[in-house]
Amino acid sequence: MMTSKCSTSASIRKPPIEGDRSFTGFRAAIQSAGLIPPDYIEPGRFHRFPGANKSAGNDAGWCLLFDDGIGGAFGDWSTGLWEKWQARKPADEAERREWVAKIHKARQESERQRQKARAAAAKESIRVWNTAEPASPDHPYLVTKGIQPHGARIERGRLVIPARNAAGDIRSLQRIDKLGSKRFETGGAINGNFYLIGQPDELIIVAEGFATAASIHEATGHAVAVAFNAGNLRSVAQAILKTLPEVQIIIAADDDRSTDGNPGIAKATEAAQSVAGKIAEPGQPGDFNDLAKAQGLEAVAKAIEQARWAVSKRVRMTRPLEEIMPEPIRWLWPNRIARGKLTLIAGDPKLGKSLLTADLTARITAGHSWPVDGTTPPRGSVIFASAEDDAADTIRPRLEAARADISRVHILETVADADPETLEIRERMFNLKRDIQRLDDELHDLGDVVAVIIDPVTAYLGGTNSHTNSDVRELLAPLSKLAGKHGVAVIAVSHLNKGGSTNALYRVSGSLAFTATARGCWLVVKDQDDDTRRLLLPSGSNIAPDIGGLAYRINTKQTSVGEMAVIEWEPDMVEVDASEALQPDSEERTERHEAADWLRDLLWDGRMTAGEVQKAAKSAGFAWRTVQRARKVAGVETKREGFGKGATYFWDLRATKP
C-alpha cells in the first residue's frame, strides 16, 4: 500500500534491493530537475516534498522509487513536471513490460494523490471563505496599495482572495498579510482559476496580482480577473474565452525589466497571443498598481486604452505548399485502417462488431497477418475501451480465443477523481470530453501502442449530444490530433440508425460529424442471402481507393472458460456496395415501424423538444405525420413544461427504456 507522506525514521530505513547506487542515482535525477528530494527515499513508498522554488510547507513535489530499486518516477504538480527513471536498461522484454506497468501505476498514484490534495485544499478554502468576515478598507495592505477591498475577506488579520474556476467554484485561495506577504492554500489548484473584480461586459482584463487588478478596475470600470501569477495568465485568459467566446481580452502585464527575459511582459504576450487579445504595459518598472501610486488612476486608464495587439505584425494565413514535405500515409492495415487517423466501424447489434475488434486486436498484438491481402501489421500494444463487455469473463477469453498477445492489451479502466466533500477517491467512466490528456499520458507511458479501440464511441462522449454536428466535431478534433501525435490508429465502433436512407454515410448513428471526421468508414451488415454471413464493407474514405469489402462468419472455439465465439474470414474480397447491402429485404417493414425504430435511436441518449425531433425527422427523410403516428409504437411519451405560449413539449423515451 502506497502512502502519501514520506518517513525518515531510522527504524524503517531499508536499502533498495540493488543497493545504494540506485538510490543515489534516483535522488540525483530528481535534483537535476531542480527539486530537493527527501534525504531518504523508501522504495515502494509515495513521497511528497516541496516543488521547485517552493517553501518548506509546500508538497507539490513527489517521487516513487519502485520496490526493486531499478526504476522510479517523480514530478512536480506545481510545474507539470513528470519524469520516469531507470537505473539500467531492462534485461529482457518481460522486465520492460513490468517496468512499463509500474510506470503506469506510478502515474495513477500520482494523479490520485494530486486529486485528493486538491479536493482537501478546495474544501478547506471553502470553509475559510464562508467563515471569514468582509474586509475593511482600512486593512494595512489595502491602505498601502491605495485600493478598495473589492469583495475580499479577512481571516486572522489576513486578506483572503478565493481562486475560482470558470463555473464559479472555489478551488483554492490566497492569503495576504499586512506587509504584503502572500501564500496559497497548500495543495490547491491555481492553474486556470482566478478571482474576478467587477461585472463582465464586452471587455475583460486579466492581471497578475490582486492590487494590480483592483487599480485597473478602479481606473477603467471594466471587469478584471486576478490570475495570481504570470504563469497563470494564459490559462485564465483561455478559460474566460471558452466561457465567453465573444469577449475581448486585454492582458495587463507586469514590467519585470530588472529580471532577465522580463518574464512579466513575456508571459503576458504569450497569454494575449493565445486568445488573439491585446497586451497593456505600465510603461515603467513594476505593475499597474505601482503606476497608479506614481501617476494616478488616469495614467492607468490611458495605458489600458493604449493596449496593442500581441502580434505586432500581420501573421500570414497561408503557407507555400512547396515548404511542406510530402509524407506517406502509415497504414495499420493497407488501404483500410491508417495510423494517426480515426477509423469508424458501424453496424447493427448482434453482427459481431466486438468480435471484429477482438480479431483486429489479436492480429496487431501477436503479429498475425491480415485476412485476404496477407500483409502483416506493425506489432504493438492496443488500448481497449469496451463499455459493453466485462474484461474478465468476456474480453480476455475472447482475445485468447482469437490468439492475441494479451500482455500487449491494456484495458481502459475507470478514472479516479477525489470527492471534494469527503476527499474519498471516486471512480468514474473515462470520457473523451475530459480525459484526452490522461489518454495522452497513457500513450506516452506505454510507448508501443499502435491502436486504440473505443467500443462503442457513443458511450464515451461525456454528455456531448451525439446528434449535434458542432459538438461532435469539437469532441473528436482533439482525439484525431492525439492519433496523429502518437501515430496510433483510433478505431471507433458505432451503431447504425434505423432511418430509411440507403446512403451508408447517413446510416451511422448520431451526427454526420462522426463519418465526416473519420478518414475511413466501414459498415458491418448481414448478407441478405445468407443469415450466417457478415460483410465488412467500405462506405467512405478520402485517403484510400475502394478496394472492396470482406466477408466473415462467426464460429466457436473451446477455451479455458468454455466455448467462445471467433471470426472466420473468407479468403476472397466481396464486390458488394455498401448502399446496395443496405437495401431493405423482401419483408420490408412499414414506414411507421421504421420511423419508430428511428425514434428510439434518436431519443436513446435523452429527451428532445418536439421542434428538435421534427427537424431531425426532416433530415432523415420521414414525414412529420408518420413520425407522430410512430410515437406510440416506439413507446415515446410527451410532456409539457410551462404554460401558454411559453410551453415546451418534450419527447422522452426514458420511461420505456429497459
From TrEMBL:
Which SMART domains does the UniProt entry name for this protein? TOPRIM
Q: Which residues form the Toprim domain?
A: 202-285
Q: Which Pfam families match?
A: AAA_25, Toprim_3
The coiled-coil segments of this chain are none
Q: Taxonomically, which superkingdom?
A: Bacteria
What is the protein name for this chain?
Answer: AAA family ATPase
